[in-house]
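I am still learning, so can you show me any protein sequence you like together with the matching structure tokens, please?
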Amino acid sequence: MSKVSSVAEKALAAKRPLFRRQLLALRKVILSSGATIDALGGVEETTKWAQLSYLPKKSRVGTTIRIDQHDDEHIAMYVHCQTTLIQTYKTLFPELTYTGNRGVLFAVKNPLPRGEIAICVEAAFTYHLRKKQAVG
């Protein structure tokens, strides 16, 4: 997990050093958080829309998380806009910064809120599983 994959290297190659470091730190939180959830069957790292993307290896368990530079001051962790995840995140962590109904922003000059991110990752990676349990 500590080794940077060729997928990540390629996706981050053109990023400025500060953004690259923060995106790698965010990647590490996502992968380590996902590794603690047995129901996922592991976490797959890929790219979607030229952004680093993470999803459970088992299907219908959770939703994809994408990460990228958002603007000149922020990186972002994006989730599918048709989920209720951002609404949930806003309830749990009103102090974080959001972009619409699809992303959480992190200022690159500040330390990442790793604990909050880990909770958000778990919610995304178990989104469909939790919806099924709520219905059943």
